Amino acid sequence: MSRxxxxxxxxxxxxxxxxxxxxxxxxxxxxxxxxxxCSIGRSTDLYDGEIRGIAGxxxxxxxxxxSINALGLVPSSIGCFAGGExxxxxxxxxxxxxxxxRVLLRAVNLDGGIASGxxxxxxxxxxxxxxxxxxxxxxxxxxxxGAVIEGAPFTPxxxxxxxxxxxxxxSAQYGSWxxxxxxxxxxxxxxxxxxxxxxxxxxxxxxxxxxxxxxxxPHAAWVIINVRGHAAEISxxxxxxxxxxxxxxxxxxxxxxxxxxxxxxxxxxxxxxPQAATHFPEGLVVGGLWVGDLQGGGQxxxxxxxxxxxxxxxxxxxxxxxxxxxx
Length: 327
Hints:
By secondary structure, the chain is mainly beta. Helices cover 9% and strands 43% of the residues.
Protein backbone atom coordinates (compact mmCIF):
# COMPACT_ATOMS: atom_id res chain seq x y z
CA MET A 1 0.00 0.00 0.00
CA SER A 2 1.49 3.31 -0.96
CA ARG A 3 1.65 6.28 1.35
CA UNK A 4 -0.40 9.27 0.27
CA UNK A 5 -2.10 12.30 1.64
CA UNK A 6 -5.79 12.14 0.96
CA UNK A 7 -8.81 14.02 2.18
CA UNK A 8 -12.42 12.96 2.30
CA UNK A 9 -14.75 15.85 2.96
CA UNK A 10 -18.06 15.63 4.76
CA UNK A 11 -19.43 17.01 1.52
CA UNK A 12 -17.22 16.80 -1.56
CA UNK A 13 -17.83 19.75 -3.86
CA UNK A 14 -16.86 19.44 -7.52
CA UNK A 15 -16.99 22.04 -10.26
CA UNK A 16 -20.55 21.47 -11.36
CA UNK A 17 -20.60 23.11 -14.78
CA UNK A 18 -19.51 20.74 -17.57
CA UNK A 19 -16.43 21.97 -19.50
CA UNK A 20 -18.15 21.59 -22.87
CA UNK A 21 -20.81 24.09 -21.83
CA UNK A 22 -18.79 26.52 -19.72
CA UNK A 23 -15.22 26.54 -21.02
CA UNK A 24 -14.02 30.13 -20.98
CA UNK A 25 -10.69 31.83 -20.45
CA UNK A 26 -11.71 32.18 -16.81
CA UNK A 27 -10.77 28.49 -16.61
CA UNK A 28 -7.65 28.00 -18.75
CA UNK A 29 -7.42 24.37 -17.58
CA UNK A 30 -10.51 23.54 -19.63
CA UNK A 31 -10.03 26.06 -22.44
CA UNK A 32 -6.49 25.49 -23.74
CA UNK A 33 -5.43 22.02 -24.83
CA UNK A 34 -1.85 23.31 -25.23
CA UNK A 35 -0.41 26.55 -23.90
CA UNK A 36 3.14 27.87 -23.91
CA UNK A 37 4.27 30.86 -21.88
CA CYS A 38 6.88 31.42 -24.58
CA SER A 39 6.41 29.91 -28.06
CA ILE A 40 5.30 26.73 -29.78
CA GLY A 41 7.93 25.64 -32.30
CA ARG A 42 10.59 27.85 -33.84
CA SER A 43 10.76 29.73 -37.11
CA THR A 44 13.63 27.41 -38.06
CA ASP A 45 12.03 24.25 -36.61
CA LEU A 46 8.24 24.27 -36.89
CA TYR A 47 6.14 22.12 -34.54
CA ASP A 48 4.69 19.19 -36.48
CA GLY A 49 2.54 17.30 -33.98
CA GLU A 50 -1.25 17.20 -33.94
CA ILE A 51 -3.03 19.28 -31.30
CA ARG A 52 -6.65 18.23 -30.91
CA GLY A 53 -7.86 21.22 -28.93
CA ILE A 54 -7.16 24.94 -28.79
CA ALA A 55 -3.52 26.07 -28.92
CA GLY A 56 -2.17 29.23 -27.35
CA UNK A 57 1.17 30.92 -26.76
CA UNK A 58 2.20 34.20 -25.20
CA UNK A 59 4.86 34.27 -27.92
CA UNK A 60 4.67 32.89 -31.46
CA UNK A 61 3.27 29.67 -32.96
CA UNK A 62 5.01 27.89 -35.84
CA UNK A 63 3.28 24.75 -37.20
CA UNK A 64 3.74 22.40 -40.15
CA UNK A 65 2.30 19.15 -41.47
CA UNK A 66 -0.26 18.79 -38.71
CA SER A 67 -3.76 19.68 -37.55
CA ILE A 68 -4.77 22.10 -34.82
CA ASN A 69 -8.01 22.03 -32.84
CA ALA A 70 -8.71 18.88 -34.84
CA LEU A 71 -11.79 17.88 -32.84
CA GLY A 72 -13.23 21.37 -32.41
CA LEU A 73 -14.58 20.34 -29.01
CA VAL A 74 -14.14 23.53 -27.00
CA PRO A 75 -16.79 26.13 -27.83
CA SER A 76 -14.59 28.89 -29.22
CA SER A 77 -14.61 30.44 -32.66
CA ILE A 78 -10.81 30.80 -32.41
CA GLY A 79 -8.57 27.73 -32.52
CA CYS A 80 -5.15 29.37 -32.13
CA PHE A 81 -4.13 32.41 -30.07
CA ALA A 82 -0.67 33.97 -30.24
CA GLY A 83 0.94 36.99 -28.64
CA GLY A 84 3.47 36.98 -31.48
CA GLU A 85 3.28 35.70 -35.04
CA UNK A 86 1.67 32.56 -36.46
CA UNK A 87 3.11 30.51 -39.31
CA UNK A 88 1.24 27.54 -40.77
CA UNK A 89 2.62 25.26 -43.50
CA UNK A 90 0.54 22.34 -44.79
CA UNK A 91 -1.82 22.54 -41.83
CA UNK A 92 -5.50 21.74 -41.38
CA UNK A 93 -6.93 24.10 -38.78
CA UNK A 94 -10.35 24.21 -37.12
CA UNK A 95 -11.45 27.70 -36.11
CA UNK A 96 -10.00 31.14 -36.63
CA UNK A 97 -6.55 32.55 -35.86
CA UNK A 98 -5.85 35.52 -33.60
CA UNK A 99 -2.26 36.79 -33.61
CA UNK A 100 -0.76 40.03 -32.35
CA UNK A 101 2.02 39.56 -34.91
CA ARG A 102 1.98 38.69 -38.58
CA VAL A 103 0.30 35.55 -39.98
CA LEU A 104 1.96 33.46 -42.72
CA LEU A 105 0.10 30.67 -44.52
CA ARG A 106 1.27 28.14 -47.09
CA ALA A 107 -0.90 25.27 -48.32
CA VAL A 108 -3.28 25.68 -45.40
CA ASN A 109 -6.93 24.72 -45.02
CA LEU A 110 -8.36 27.12 -42.46
CA ASP A 111 -12.07 26.86 -41.75
CA GLY A 112 -12.20 30.19 -39.92
CA GLY A 113 -10.92 33.72 -40.39
CA ILE A 114 -7.76 35.58 -39.41
CA ALA A 115 -7.21 38.62 -37.20
CA SER A 116 -3.64 39.96 -37.19
CA GLY A 117 -2.13 42.91 -35.40
CA UNK A 118 0.49 43.28 -38.15
CA UNK A 119 -0.02 41.66 -41.58
CA UNK A 120 -1.15 38.53 -43.42
CA UNK A 121 0.73 36.71 -46.15
CA UNK A 122 -0.74 33.64 -47.77
CA UNK A 123 0.00 31.30 -50.67
CA UNK A 124 -2.22 28.42 -51.72
CA UNK A 125 -4.49 28.75 -48.69
CA UNK A 126 -8.21 28.35 -48.14
CA UNK A 127 -9.55 30.80 -45.56
CA UNK A 128 -13.09 30.22 -44.32
CA UNK A 129 -13.74 33.74 -43.04
CA UNK A 130 -12.39 37.28 -43.10
CA UNK A 131 -8.67 38.01 -43.53
CA UNK A 132 -8.21 41.19 -41.46
CA UNK A 133 -4.92 42.86 -40.49
CA UNK A 134 -3.82 46.22 -39.15
CA UNK A 135 -1.24 46.32 -41.94
CA UNK A 136 -1.18 44.75 -45.39
CA UNK A 137 -2.84 41.58 -46.62
CA UNK A 138 -1.13 39.74 -49.48
CA UNK A 139 -2.80 36.57 -50.72
CA UNK A 140 -1.64 34.58 -53.74
CA UNK A 141 -3.63 31.64 -55.15
CA UNK A 142 -5.86 31.77 -52.09
CA UNK A 143 -9.59 31.31 -51.61
CA UNK A 144 -11.22 33.63 -49.06
CA UNK A 145 -14.88 33.16 -48.17
CA GLY A 146 -15.05 36.43 -46.22
CA ALA A 147 -13.72 39.94 -46.69
CA VAL A 148 -10.09 40.99 -47.10
CA ILE A 149 -9.52 43.96 -44.80
CA GLU A 150 -6.39 46.08 -44.44
CA GLY A 151 -6.01 48.69 -41.71
CA ALA A 152 -8.37 46.77 -39.43
CA PRO A 153 -8.14 47.59 -35.70
CA PHE A 154 -6.79 44.76 -33.58
CA THR A 155 -7.44 44.09 -29.91
CA PRO A 156 -6.58 40.67 -28.44
CA UNK A 157 -9.60 38.95 -26.97
CA UNK A 158 -7.47 37.18 -24.34
CA UNK A 159 -4.64 38.48 -22.15
CA UNK A 160 -2.21 35.64 -22.88
CA UNK A 161 0.31 36.89 -20.34
CA UNK A 162 -2.37 36.61 -17.65
CA UNK A 163 -3.10 33.05 -18.77
CA UNK A 164 0.57 32.21 -18.32
CA UNK A 165 0.47 33.77 -14.85
CA UNK A 166 -2.53 31.58 -14.02
CA UNK A 167 -0.59 28.41 -14.80
CA UNK A 168 2.41 29.66 -12.81
CA UNK A 169 0.27 30.39 -9.77
CA UNK A 170 -1.54 27.06 -9.94
CA SER A 171 1.70 25.12 -10.26
CA ALA A 172 3.13 26.90 -7.22
CA GLN A 173 -0.08 26.36 -5.26
CA TYR A 174 -0.23 22.63 -5.87
CA GLY A 175 3.53 22.34 -5.46
CA SER A 176 3.23 23.78 -1.94
CA TRP A 177 1.01 20.86 -0.95
CA UNK A 178 3.50 18.37 0.40
CA UNK A 179 2.32 14.83 -0.24
CA UNK A 180 3.06 11.22 0.45
CA UNK A 181 5.42 9.01 -1.50
CA UNK A 182 4.27 6.55 -4.15
CA UNK A 183 5.02 2.85 -3.93
CA UNK A 184 8.24 2.17 -5.84
CA UNK A 185 8.94 -1.46 -6.62
CA UNK A 186 11.95 -1.88 -8.87
CA UNK A 187 11.23 0.18 -11.98
CA UNK A 188 7.49 0.44 -11.30
CA UNK A 189 5.99 3.54 -9.64
CA UNK A 190 2.45 3.20 -8.30
CA UNK A 191 0.17 6.00 -7.11
CA UNK A 192 -2.71 4.48 -5.13
CA UNK A 193 -5.53 6.94 -4.43
CA UNK A 194 -8.68 7.01 -2.33
CA UNK A 195 -11.81 9.11 -2.77
CA UNK A 196 -10.99 12.78 -2.26
CA UNK A 197 -7.81 14.73 -2.96
CA UNK A 198 -4.62 12.68 -3.13
CA UNK A 199 -1.28 14.50 -3.24
CA UNK A 200 1.99 12.71 -4.00
CA UNK A 201 5.62 13.79 -4.14
CA UNK A 202 8.05 11.97 -6.42
CA UNK A 203 11.53 12.92 -7.56
CA UNK A 204 12.18 13.52 -11.24
CA UNK A 205 14.93 10.88 -11.04
CA UNK A 206 12.52 8.19 -9.78
CA UNK A 207 10.00 9.05 -12.50
CA UNK A 208 12.69 9.00 -15.17
CA UNK A 209 13.96 5.62 -13.96
CA UNK A 210 10.49 4.05 -14.08
CA UNK A 211 9.54 1.73 -16.93
CA UNK A 212 5.90 1.66 -15.78
CA UNK A 213 3.75 4.18 -13.92
CA UNK A 214 0.32 3.25 -12.56
CA UNK A 215 -2.35 5.55 -11.13
CA UNK A 216 -5.08 3.64 -9.32
CA UNK A 217 -8.21 4.89 -7.61
CA PRO A 218 -11.99 5.34 -7.82
CA HIS A 219 -13.92 7.87 -9.88
CA ALA A 220 -14.22 10.20 -6.88
CA ALA A 221 -10.44 10.48 -6.46
CA TRP A 222 -8.27 13.39 -7.53
CA VAL A 223 -4.56 12.76 -7.98
CA ILE A 224 -2.00 15.57 -7.94
CA ILE A 225 1.56 14.37 -8.54
CA ASN A 226 4.27 16.92 -7.71
CA VAL A 227 7.46 15.97 -9.55
CA ARG A 228 10.44 17.47 -7.75
CA GLY A 229 13.58 18.57 -9.56
CA HIS A 230 14.86 21.22 -11.94
CA ALA A 231 15.27 18.82 -14.86
CA ALA A 232 12.76 16.06 -15.62
CA GLU A 233 12.18 13.43 -18.27
CA ILE A 234 9.32 11.06 -19.06
CA SER A 235 10.33 8.58 -21.73
CA UNK A 236 9.81 4.95 -22.79
CA UNK A 237 7.37 4.47 -19.93
CA UNK A 238 4.23 2.31 -19.84
CA UNK A 239 1.70 4.75 -18.38
CA UNK A 240 -1.41 3.13 -16.84
CA UNK A 241 -4.53 4.89 -15.54
CA UNK A 242 -7.28 3.12 -13.62
CA UNK A 243 -10.29 2.98 -16.01
CA UNK A 244 -12.52 4.20 -13.18
CA UNK A 245 -10.61 7.46 -12.87
CA UNK A 246 -11.22 10.31 -15.35
CA UNK A 247 -8.19 11.97 -16.87
CA UNK A 248 -9.65 15.31 -15.82
CA UNK A 249 -8.96 14.29 -12.19
CA UNK A 250 -5.21 13.80 -12.77
CA UNK A 251 -2.58 16.55 -12.69
CA UNK A 252 1.15 15.91 -13.11
CA UNK A 253 2.76 19.08 -11.81
CA UNK A 254 6.38 20.11 -12.31
CA UNK A 255 6.61 23.18 -10.04
CA UNK A 256 10.41 23.41 -10.14
CA UNK A 257 11.36 22.09 -13.59
CA UNK A 258 13.26 24.40 -15.92
CA UNK A 259 13.72 21.58 -18.48
CA UNK A 260 11.27 18.81 -19.37
CA UNK A 261 11.71 16.01 -21.92
CA UNK A 262 8.74 13.91 -23.07
CA UNK A 263 9.39 11.16 -25.62
CA UNK A 264 8.26 7.68 -26.69
CA UNK A 265 5.40 7.58 -24.22
CA UNK A 266 1.60 7.62 -24.13
CA UNK A 267 1.15 9.78 -21.05
CA UNK A 268 -2.33 9.67 -19.50
CA UNK A 269 -2.92 12.83 -17.51
CA UNK A 270 -2.64 16.61 -17.59
CA UNK A 271 0.88 18.05 -17.55
CA UNK A 272 1.59 21.39 -15.88
CA UNK A 273 5.19 22.67 -16.20
CA PRO A 274 4.90 26.45 -16.62
CA GLN A 275 8.60 27.18 -16.15
CA ALA A 276 9.94 24.33 -18.27
CA ALA A 277 11.50 24.52 -21.70
CA THR A 278 9.77 21.38 -22.97
CA HIS A 279 11.13 19.13 -25.70
CA PHE A 280 8.42 16.79 -26.99
CA PRO A 281 9.80 15.24 -30.20
CA GLU A 282 7.40 12.30 -30.35
CA GLY A 283 4.82 10.44 -28.29
CA LEU A 284 1.36 11.24 -26.97
CA VAL A 285 -0.10 13.24 -24.11
CA VAL A 286 -3.76 12.51 -23.43
CA GLY A 287 -4.78 15.62 -21.53
CA GLY A 288 -3.71 19.22 -21.32
CA LEU A 289 -0.10 20.31 -21.86
CA TRP A 290 0.72 23.68 -20.27
CA VAL A 291 4.42 24.56 -20.30
CA GLY A 292 6.98 27.35 -20.35
CA ASP A 293 8.08 26.69 -23.94
CA LEU A 294 7.25 23.87 -26.37
CA GLN A 295 9.37 22.36 -29.15
CA GLY A 296 9.09 19.12 -31.09
CA GLY A 297 6.25 17.27 -32.73
CA GLY A 298 4.41 15.10 -30.19
CA GLN A 299 0.64 14.62 -30.37
CA UNK A 300 -1.65 16.09 -27.72
CA UNK A 301 -5.12 14.59 -27.51
CA UNK A 302 -7.77 16.88 -26.09
CA UNK A 303 -8.13 16.78 -22.32
CA UNK A 304 -8.63 19.09 -19.37
CA UNK A 305 -8.24 19.32 -15.59
CA UNK A 306 -11.16 19.93 -13.26
CA UNK A 307 -9.91 21.53 -10.09
CA UNK A 308 -11.42 20.13 -6.89
CA UNK A 309 -12.89 22.76 -4.60
CA UNK A 310 -10.82 22.84 -1.42
CA UNK A 311 -12.68 23.94 1.73
CA UNK A 312 -11.29 26.81 3.78
CA UNK A 313 -12.77 25.42 7.00
CA UNK A 314 -11.66 22.26 8.83
CA UNK A 315 -14.74 20.13 8.05
CA UNK A 316 -12.65 17.34 6.59
CA UNK A 317 -11.15 14.07 7.76
CA UNK A 318 -7.57 12.89 7.33
CA UNK A 319 -6.14 9.42 7.66
CA UNK A 320 -2.70 7.88 7.89
CA UNK A 321 -1.19 10.19 10.50
CA UNK A 322 0.07 12.54 7.77
CA UNK A 323 0.06 16.28 8.16
CA UNK A 324 -3.10 18.01 6.96
CA UNK A 325 -2.78 20.38 4.04
CA UNK A 326 -4.59 23.02 6.07
CA UNK A 327 -2.68 23.01 9.34
